Amino acid sequence: MKLQVTHRTRYSYASPVRDNYNELRLQPVSDERQQCERSLLRVLPAVRLQHYTDLHANHVSFFELPEAHSSLEIDSQSVVSTRAVVPPEAPSFPLARSSECARMARCHDYLQASRFVDPSPEAWRMAIDATHGESDLWRAALAIRRAVFEQLEYEPGITSSQTHAQEVLRDRRGVCQDFAHVMIALCRSLSIPTAYVSGYLYNGPSETLRGAQASHAWCEVFVPERGWLGLDPTNDQLADERYVKLAVGRDYADAAPVRGHYRGAGQRSLAVEVLVERVGD
User: Fold this and answer.
1) Residues 227-235, mean pLDDT to the nearest whole number
2) Which letter, b or e, does each residue of 168-189 get, where b requires 16 or more Cβ atoms within 10 Å of its Cβ?
3) Which domains, ranges and CATH numbers included, belong to the chain?
4) Is 167 helix (H, G, I), strand (E, B) or coil?
5) What span, in angstroms and rounded, lies between the C-alpha atoms of 87 and 244?
6) How much is the pLDDT for 22?
7) Helix, strand, coil percentages, rounded to 5, for the chain
C-alpha cells in the first residue's frame, strides 16, 4: 500500500518569542515493513535544518530560531510504501523464558522503567490477570493488547502528552498514547521487551479506527527469532500495512514527532492537522 501523509503544525504566540529550539521526528522509517520514498520538511520562519540519528535509530531534524517571532509553522509531507505483516504462529517462544531477552543488547532499553512508564505492582497484577493460562510470549502479548483495549476507555482531551502510565491505570481512560504506555508497562512487567511507536494510521473509506487522521501511537513487542512486531491496543489489532512508523523509543519522550522549547510568552495556541491518503498499492 502506498500512503501519502501531510502533517502541519502551527504555533501562535501571545507575544514575540526567541531562542526557539525544536527537534522533529517526522521522517518515516525505512525498514523491512515500510519504505519512505519521499519526505519533505518546511519550516517558517525559514531556518537551516540540521540532522542526526538518535540512540533509537530515528532520523531527527533540528533547528533554532534565535530571532524574535510571533508564529512557527512546521509542514511535513511524506510518501511511504508499506506491506502486510505476517504474525507468528503459536508457539512462538515460551513466555517462561522471556527473561532471556534481557541479555540481548537490542532489548535492554525496552525492559526498563522510563519517563512515562513504570512497570509497577498494579501493572504486573493486570498483566498476570490478562495472561492467565498463556504460556506463549506472542499470545501473551495479544492477551495484554486485548485487556488494555477492553479495560481502558478511549476519551480524547482527558489526558496530556505528559500523563504517566500510572495515572492512566488509575483512571482507566485516555487516548492512543496512554493506551500504548499502559500496554508497555504490562508487557515489561512480564519481561517482554516493548517499544513505543509514533506514526500515523490510514482509515479506509469504510473503517472507523480510533486515532486515524491524527498522530497515532502503538507498541512493538520483541519476539525471539521474529524480531519486533507492532500491536495497536487502541484498536485491538496488528499494526499492518495501514500504519506508518515515524519513530520508536522507550516511551513518548523518545519518539515525539515535534518537541522543543523557547524563551518568551507562556501563552500560545497550537493547531495540528494530519491527513493520510492512499495513493496506490
Assistant:
1) 96
2) bbeeebbbbbbbbbbbbbbbbb
3) 2-83+256-280 (2.60.40.2250), 95-255 (3.10.620.30)
4) helix
5) 17
6) 97
7) 20, 40, 35
